[in-house]
Amino acid sequence: MRSPAPRALLATAAVAVSLAAADTYVVVLALTDMMRGVGVGIDSLQRATPIISGFLLGYVAVLPLIGRLADLVDRQKVLLGCLAVFVVGSVLTALAVELPVLVAGRVVQGVGGGGLVPATLAIVAQLWPADRRGVPLGVVGAVQELGSVLGPVLGALVLVVADWRAIFWLNAVLGVVLAAAVVVTGGGGLGRPRVVPVVLGAVTAAVLGLALTAPDALVTSVSLGLPFVPFGGATSRLATPIGLVGLGLLVVTLVVAGRGGWALLRRADLLGAVLVGGALGCVVLTFAAAEPEREVVGPLGYALLPVAALLVVAYVAHHRRSASPLVPRGLVRGRLVGALVVSVLVGVALVAVVVDVPLLARLVHTSSQTEAALVLVRFLVAVPVGALAGGWALRVTGPGVVAGTGLALAAIGLAVMTTWGRGSLEDVASTLVLALTGLGIGLALAPVNDAALAEASVESHGTASALVVVARMVGMVVGVALLTAIGLHQYYAEVGGLVDPTDTEALRDAAVLQVAWVFRGAAIAAGLGALASLTLGVRRRERPVTAE
Description:
Layout: H1 6-25, H2 31-37, H3 49-61, H4 63-72, H5 75-95, H6 99-127, H7 134-161, H8 165-185, H9 195-213, H10 216-219, H11 241-257, H12 261-267, H13 270-288, H14 301-321, H15 334-364, H16 369-380, H17 382-393, H18 399-417, H19 428-455, H20 461-496, H21 504-532
Helix pairs in contact: 1-6, 1-7, 1-8, 3-6, 3-13, 4-6, 4-20, 5-6, 5-8, 6-20, 7-17, 7-19, 9-11, 13-14, 13-20, 15-16, 15-19, 15-20, 15-21, 16-19, 17-19, 18-19, 18-21, 19-20, 20-21
């Protein structure tokens, strides 16, 4: 791929990455409205967990496969494919009136959104030489974190003027606009679309759209309402004649559109992708579905973790026999191993701040959930600033120095946060500490990606980028569960020693102690990350000298 406007293509892809990152958190304020929209009462909050974890599952589970596909076909096509999947998931979510459809829409959204990151990083590696890709990588890291900041804000702004469905219709429109921008900035060269799949897709969308919306004018019509009558005692709008036809058309469309794609999937090692994706999915569902206040793993965790282990063993055996494995042989070595370790530890440090700073604010600063979230903004705004600074710093020094410095700063900030108690968040110094921690974590983002891309061959950049993103997401999901478990152990030990177990102030102090232990664990993770960063290389890479 040779883009006539690489900066414009990067900007477009970066906005798409930001949009996908925003969607991880866009449901925070709209969750209760979404539950009511699909008939789930506020007293059944546990049933809404898949609305969030479903997106995360889709985001993580397919990353290795999409990263591998980005190594086998034009990365612009992968980017467009991910945007198309993201748009489909957004529309499905917007149309949902029942929980299974809503969760399915979120999973599809996650699949498209997650794939945007490795595709974009691989594009950066292809369009910029190794000694000049630091700033573009910093841009990608910055917009990804900026999207996380803007997600709840975007959701809140939409909810002021419309209902929750408008959030996802807006996502769909933006996804289409960004796809068009990718075509323009990428210089085209995608070939003419196949007519039959396009027509089938349009008909399928129309039929399924009618089934899910069930317009009153048709449903109540004596002559036209029969296709909308559910089978037997079913209540789902898809368990109707028109829903069944729509699902059948969807299967036909996928088969026709995928003609010729099976060969590509076999090259990408579909079986390996299923094994790895299944293992990742089990890990995500184990920890993301857990109630941090009560448990380390989710309700099915003790069944899912052994399954994940079996899938990993199966993939290792398959990897040895496969002629073209999902993760190319010899890829995970040297600096890429260091990058994966650092990425996991960055995820642990990041999630500790994101989860426990608002909790601490509710304990010692304010009873308002909104004000507690605003305390976290002091940290979140500094992360993209650090990501840009980290990308720029790669011009003058090696990735190990930049990432190590950043994580050392984060470790210091987190260590200070372990001492916080009542009145701490009202001090100006708390803002400086949060900003320092966010800046430090941001500094590590671009160097990790830079080191991973430098270690991988050109043919493996997509896979390497996907592995780095997966490592960070796993660090976040597992880290929040383990650190919370450590904190809760200290909390219950403190409460067990109270003379009066009903003393509200003493219980609050015990909860503050719990948060302090989470920060202590995160500080250790950041410190270990700073040491591991030394494996990424401490010297700046020079531009290769070529003969005139």
